[in-house]
């Protein structure tokens, strides 16, 4: 019998890629989002345009016992969106409502296998002040002190899913994503993340010109290509380990070095201007010891290969936009 899956947040970057992956595995997939797939990535024949903050929408979507449910839907974006403070109330209210609705609907209809995408933003700000030595091991999340309301909501929702495991015998699985990137994602408009934003700036820049980078560029991050994210996500949901566990790369890089890598990929001669802007914590890197222990798997380090694919895609989108009257 053909297996079934539900992807919440199917119109988003990771959700669109996940749908394609599941369909290649032979799943019948239903996708749901408040917006359609921006770049045609939601290829499922059963895509529901609906608001998961609305309980009636959630009940209409979760109307059968799906074999697997992936809850990726959230109100989120890059540092400029989640760290400004201007969107805090929306971020907490919208994401919490989605998680409360989806989780309880799954419980009431008898679905047990549910994945929740948390975030590295749950980790305490005080452990991420040194760009060279951030602490992001899973058990360091407590005592809690995230640097944004986005992180606080994710931490609350982790506890919500774990409580349903304990009290209702569910098999929710929780991953803390670390900066997932790749083609077919948001690359402009204010909600894009650093890799896409830098790719866009480089693609738009004239050879011999310059691009702007927020802050001093010394802040560090790790970036995981979307295909590796999907592999870890699916392995976790189908495992006996509930998490939370990091899904990210251990290849830490400064934003300056990331910008120089993308400039090199482009073949352009560009310089970097450092300008005032929100840049988040000073350092963040995935600690992959737990995922290797529990799943016997860890992501491949394919930063440059992934950036090459991402830059070529975004450069193509920029070219299309420039040709639009």
How does this structure look, described?
It contains ten helices and 13 strands. It is globular, with a radius of gyration of 19 Å. The chain is of the alpha/beta class and 325 residues long. The strands form four sheets. Strands 3-2-1-4-5-6-11 form a seven-stranded parallel beta sheet, with helices on both faces. Strands 7-10 form a two-stranded parallel ribbon. The termini are far apart. The protein has helices at 13-24, 55-61, 79-82, 88-109, 149-168, 194-204, 226-237, 255-266, 289-295, 303-323; strands at 4-8, 28-33, 46-49, 68-71, 113-119, 171-177, 180-181, 210-214, 220-221, 224-225, 245-247, 253-254, 271-275. The chain is 39% helix and 17% strand. It has a domain at 4-181 and 225-247: NAD(P)-binding Rossmann-like Domain (Rossmann fold, 3-Layer(aba) Sandwich). The mean pLDDT is 94.
Q: Which fold does the CATH topology of the domain at 4-181 and 225-247 refer to?
A: Rossmann fold
| Weakly predicted, low-confidence segments | none
Count of alpha and pi helical runs:
10
Number of strands: 13
Strand content: 15-25%
Task: Please tell me the overall pLDDT.
Answer: 94
Rg on CA atoms, Å: 19 Å
Structural class: alpha/beta
Q: Secondary-structure element sequence?
A: EHEEHEHHEHEEHEEEHEEHEHH
Helix content: 25-40%
Question: How far apart are the termini?
Answer: 50 Å
Biggest sheet strand order reads: 3-2-1-4-5-6-11
Tell me what the CATH architecture of the domain at 4-181 and 225-247 is. Answer: 3-Layer(aba) Sandwich
Major beta sheet summary:
7 strands, parallel
Highest-level CATH class of the domain at 4-181 and 225-247: Alpha Beta
Principal-axis shape equals: globular
User: What name goes with the CATH superfamily of the domain at 4-181 and 225-247?
Assistant: NAD(P)-binding Rossmann-like Domain
């Amino acid at each position: 019998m053909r297996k079934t899956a539900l992807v919440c947040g199917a119109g988003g970057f990771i959700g669109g890629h996940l749908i394609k992956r599941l369909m290649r595995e032979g799943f019948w997939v239903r996708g749901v989002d408040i917006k359609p797939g921006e770049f045609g990535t939601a290829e499922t024949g059963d895509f529901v345009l609906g608001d998961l903050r609305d309980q009636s929408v959630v009940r209409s979507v979760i109307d059968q016992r799906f074999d697997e449910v992936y809850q990726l839907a959230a109100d989120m974006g890059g540092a400029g969106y989640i760290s400004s403070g201007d969107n805090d109330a929306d971020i907490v209210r919208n994401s919490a409502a989605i998680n409360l609705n989806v989780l309880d609907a799954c419980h009431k209809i008898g679905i047990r296998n549910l994945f929740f995408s948390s975030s590295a933003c749950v980790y305490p700000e005080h452990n991420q002040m040194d760009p060279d030595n951030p602490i992001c091991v899973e058990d360091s999340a407590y005592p809690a002190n995230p640097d944004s309301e986005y992180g606080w909501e994710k931490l609350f929702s982790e506890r919500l899913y774990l409580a349903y495991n304990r009290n209702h015998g569910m098999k929710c699985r929780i991953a803390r994503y670390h900066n997932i990137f790749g083609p077919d994602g948001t690359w402009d408009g204010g909600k894009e993340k650093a890799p896409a934003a830098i790719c866009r700036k480089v693609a738009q820049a004239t050879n011999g010109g310059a691009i702007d980078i927020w802050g001093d560029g010394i802040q560090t991050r790790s970036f995981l290509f979307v295909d590796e994210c999907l592999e870890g996500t699916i392995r976790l949901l189908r495992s006996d380990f509930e998490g939370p566990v990091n899904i990210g790369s251990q290849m830490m890089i400064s934003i300056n070095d990331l910008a120089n890598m993308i400039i090199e990929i482009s073949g352009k001669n560009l310089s970097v201007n450092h300008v005032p802007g929100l840049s988040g914590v000073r350092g963040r890197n995935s600690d992959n010891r737990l995922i290797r222990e529990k799943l016997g798997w860890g992501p491949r380090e394919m930063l440059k290969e992934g950036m090459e694919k991402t830059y070529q895609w975004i450069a193509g989108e920029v070219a299309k936009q420039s040709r639009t009257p």
